[in-house]
């Protein structure tokens, strides 16, 4: 929904002490947050080993006054999974809301949940290697990248057992299929993840429409209609290492679906591979006249969560975002892609041949650009690469 006008809530995770307004104001300008000052960096959120450090809502990144900062400072150390998870597991306002493969079950998972963190007790930085506080990783939703992380950082590019009769075929699959595609056959294994979020239904009384172990469909007065699910099969998309991204002020598809961060690539792109994704449907406010998405003010005494008036929220938020607002609010459908990299299954639980090439295979090969099942009609070359 956008950080502008919502700084003091968003900066509970987006790092920095006192980031409460336009962060891009010139250094020294009144109220401008200065990223160049080391004193503004929150070291403790990553290096606390007591498990007691935390932020308070709407305090612009400052620690909760109840935290014993002396005790925390005397017990700093290398980050563990829970340090990273304090933000990454709870993005979007709850456990595993956003990513689908990152929830608090990763604090102490078993091997079947994640073979690296459960089976081998990996910390996050085992893969997300770090130098001078630059943490390797490529964001799905923003352009942030401080180095790539790949399975082949540790594994051979042709990792399958040569004694297996299928080894050659499986290794050949690696030319068109990411490792994650076969080795993450299911996500949101333990924690439900949000698969649909309809803001247009907010402001109404809470109501539960469906609730089982695997799905929760409910209306939240604060956040609208939410669908949360677990034990899901990924969607599959071509990805060449890049995503397009909707930027504020871009034209929205007012009658269809606005893609927020679609992956780039296709069957004819030799650098693209099929990757697993979580898809997240949204219904969000847009300016009916100007045809772009609205950045609303959600938090604070004059925010949407207090008065539930989209027009007031839009006026405040769009002013902070420096975008014109016509005064006319409508709602449009959006789609977000969340690339799956965690909850890697043990090898015996990876997708088998029939999981993809059987009558009820998990992939829609025609949608991916093949004439049909490539085991029958041929692979990428036959499809026109």
Describe the model.
- The structure is a single chain.
- With about 375 residues, this protein is of the alpha+beta class.
- It contains twelve helices and ten strands.
- Strands 3, 4, 5, 6, 7, 8, 9 and 10 form an eight-stranded mixed sheet that branches.
- Strand 1 (about 130) and strand 2 (about 135) form a beta hairpin.
- The relative contact order is 0.12.
- The model has no long low-confidence stretch (mean pLDDT about 90).
Total helical segments: 12
Largest sheet: 8 strands, mixed
Which bin fits the share of residues in helices? 10-25%
Arithmetic mean of pLDDT = 92
Order of helices and strands: HHHHHHEEHHEEEEEEEHHEHH
Cα distance, first to last residue? 38 Å
SS strand fraction = 15-25%
Question: Low-confidence runs (pLDDT<50, min 5 residues)?
Answer: none
Helix and strand content put the structural class at alpha+beta
Q: Care to count the β-strands?
A: 10
Computed CA radius of gyration, to the nearest angstrom: 22 Å
Which word captures the global form? globular
């Amino acid at each position: 929904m956008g950080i502008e006008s919502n700084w003091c809530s968003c900066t509970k995770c987006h790092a920095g002490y006192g980031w409460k307004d336009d962060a891009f104001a010139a250094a020294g300008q009144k109220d401008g947050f200065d990223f160049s000052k080391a004193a503004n960096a929150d070291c403790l959120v990553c290096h606390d080993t007591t498990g007691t450090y935390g932020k308070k809502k709407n305090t612009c990144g400052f620690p909760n006054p109840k935290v014993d900062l002396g005790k925390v400072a005397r017990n700093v150390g290398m980050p563990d999974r829970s340090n990273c998870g304090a933000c990454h597991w709870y993005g979007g306002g709850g456990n595993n809301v956003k990513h689908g493969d990152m929830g608090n079950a990763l604090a102490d998972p078993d091997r079947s949940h994640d073979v690296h963190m459960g089976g081998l007790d990996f910390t996050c930085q085992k893969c997300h290697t770090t130098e001078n506080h630059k943490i390797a990783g490529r964001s799905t939703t923003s352009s942030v990248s401080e180095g790539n992380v790949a399975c082949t950082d540790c594994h051979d590019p042709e990792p399958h057992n040569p004694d297996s009769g299928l080894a050659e075929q499986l290794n050949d699959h690696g030319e068109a299929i990411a490792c994650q595609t076969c080795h993450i056959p299911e996500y949101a294994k333990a924690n439900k993840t949000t698969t649909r979020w309809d803001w247009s239904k907010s402001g109404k009384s809470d109501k539960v429409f469906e609730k089982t172990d695997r799905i929760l469909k409910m209306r939240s007065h604060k956040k609208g209609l939410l669908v949360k699910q677990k034990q899901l099969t990924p969607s599959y998309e071509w990805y060449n290492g890049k995503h397009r991204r909707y930027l504020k002020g871009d034209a929205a598809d007012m009658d269809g679906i606005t893609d927020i961060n679609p992956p780039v690539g296709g069957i004819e792109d030799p650098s693209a591979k099929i990757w697993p994704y979580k898809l997240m449907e949204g219904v969000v406010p847009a300016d009916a006249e100007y045809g772009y998405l609205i950045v609303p003010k959600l938090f604070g005494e004059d925010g949407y969560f207090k008065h539930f008036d989209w027009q007031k929220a839009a006026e405040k938020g769009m002013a902070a975002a420096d975008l014109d607002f016509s005064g006319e609010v409508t709602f449009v459908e959006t789609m977000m892609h969340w690339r799956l990299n965690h909850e890697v299954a043990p090898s015996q639980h990876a997708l088998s041949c029939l999981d993809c090439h059987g009558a009820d295979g998990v992939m829609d090969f025609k949608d991916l650009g093949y004439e049909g099942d490539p085991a029958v009609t041929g692979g990428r070359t036959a499809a026109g690469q």
